[in-house]
Write a structure and sequence with these properties.
The chain has 12 helices and no strands. By secondary structure, the protein is mostly helical. α2 packs parallel to α4, α8 packs parallel to α10 and α9 runs antiparallel to α10. The longest helix has 50 residues. The chain is globular and about 55 Å long. The termini are far apart. 49% of the residues are buried.
């Protein structure tokens, strides 16, 4: 067929294929998940900002502690109890985990809509912790889906690193729309933007391929590998890191309620920076040392940071320790993922990572409960972080030496 000429005489060699919608962007399965994750992370940051000037941070810390504990327990307990039973069913259902992600985003959007008129009501507490519980459920489902949207195991650690990077970028990128919304409509305006972010995340998650995480129950080889000493020790160390994150989160939340709102913005900013740094340095650390030494390194850094920040305290100490713990949590998780790939090659990645992620989320809740039940001075709390990290490092090193008495942790 003769190509048609344009008025200026130019003739195209062929008619370009027309692409519309998402197909025009040639998004890979991982890119689709990453796009949904970016909006969900932005929604999380926006919810935190919206709560800064609400009843959530306007109560006497001592009077509110038992209520915070009650709501935290009531919202997180179902995740800990039900997930081990529902998880295997979702894993073996076609698109089960994908629909769990879609549902978590949609439910958070709905709860944000309800919270618009409850920012000065006691109903805010169960609603806020419902958003938290749904976020933890999303984290478990995402851990199961990531291995199904990458081509090889070699891409898995890099994929998790990119998702962590997006989480770190979400807070500063959400600051601009949050500022505009707050200027126009106050905290309800910011919560409305959070609702929109979750809705976009839900729609984006519908584009994630509906894959099956696991077709059959765990084999004997998979079970044996996941119970190996190296994996068990690493998972215990990682659980303690997540417990430290939960502890520090609520320690700072109670302390910052008595400070100007911008203090929380500074701490959130440094936390996001820590996630970015952790995502950037983790691959380089992994090339320089084995996973075991990488975990010990980040735990040692937490000990040093906890002691140093306890010396100074204040906003600088809070922001500094939050940044270091964010680096440690991000780098440690990537090291753990890599170690499981190495020591459990026959394990189903999606099912295994979801199972471990559930344990880590429970450890987060246990760590969070401590500063909720006990009134801990800020500097003393920083020393608790250092002590917990020191215990984790000592236990991990002792376990490694017991397993390999003739040599220390692999270099």
């Amino acid at each position: 067929m003769e190509p048609m000429s344009t008025p200026d005489g130019w003739q195209p060699l062929s008619k370009p294929a027309r692409r519309t919608g998402a197909e025009a962007f040639h998004l890979s399965p991982f890119a689709r998940l990453a796009r949904a994750h970016a909006f969900a992370a932005a929604g999380d940051a926006l919810v935190t900002i919206a709560l800064a000037n609400s009843l959530f941070f306007d109560l006497d810390p001592n009077d509110a502690r038992w209520k915070v504990f009650l709501y935290l327990a009531l919202t997180m307990a179902p995740l800990a109890i039900v997930a081990p039973f529902i998880g295997p069913v979702l894993d073996r259902s076609h698109g089960g985990r994908r629909w769990m992600i879609v549902g978590a985003h949609g439910a958070r959007a709905l709860v944000c809509f309800v919270m618009l008129n409850d920012l000065d009501s006691w109903l805010l507490f169960p609603e806020a912790f419902t958003v938290l519980a749904l976020g933890k459920s999303y984290g478990v489902a995402r851990s199961a889906v990531v291995p199904t949207v990458v081509r090889t195991d070699a891409e898995l650690v890099e994929a998790n690193s990119k998702l962590q990077l997006l989480s770190g970028l979400a807070a500063p990128l959400a600051a601009a729309p949050a500022g505009i919304a707050y200027a126009l409509a106050g905290s309800p305006g910011v919560m409305g933007v959070a609702m929109v972010a979750y809705l976009i995340a839900m729609l984006a998650a519908l584009r994630v391929p509906a894959t099956q995480v696991a077709e059959a129950p765990a084999s004997q080889a998979e079970t044996t590998e996941l119970r190996s000493l190296g994996v068990v020790l690493a998972s215990s160390g990682m659980a303690l890191i997540r417990g430290i994150v939960g502890f520090l989160t609520f320690l700072l939340l109670f302390d910052l309620r008595e400070e100007p709102t911008w203090h929380m913005g500074v701490v959130l900013g440094f936390t996001g920076l820590g996630v970015l740094v952790g995502s950037a340095v983790a691959p380089a650390l992994r090339r320089a040392m084995a996973e075991e030494r990488m975990l010990l390194t980040v735990l040692g850094a937490t000990v040093v940071a906890g002691v140093v920040t306890a010396r100074f305290g204040g906003l600088g100490g809070s922001a500094g320790l939050a940044a270091v713990v964010a680096v440690v949590s991000t780098s440690g998780k990537l090291a753990f993922d890599s170690l499981v790939q190495r020591d459990a090659p026959d394990a189903n990645r999606g099912r295994s990572f979801a199972r471990f992620e559930l344990r880590f989320q429970i450890a987060w809740v246990i760590g969070a409960i401590v500063p909720v039940l006990l009134s801990i001075p800020l500097r003393a709390g920083f020393l608790v972080v250092a002590a917990a990290a020191g215990f984790a490092a000592f236990s991990y090193l002792a376990g490694q030496r017991a397993a390999h008495p003739a040599r220390s942790v692999e270099a």
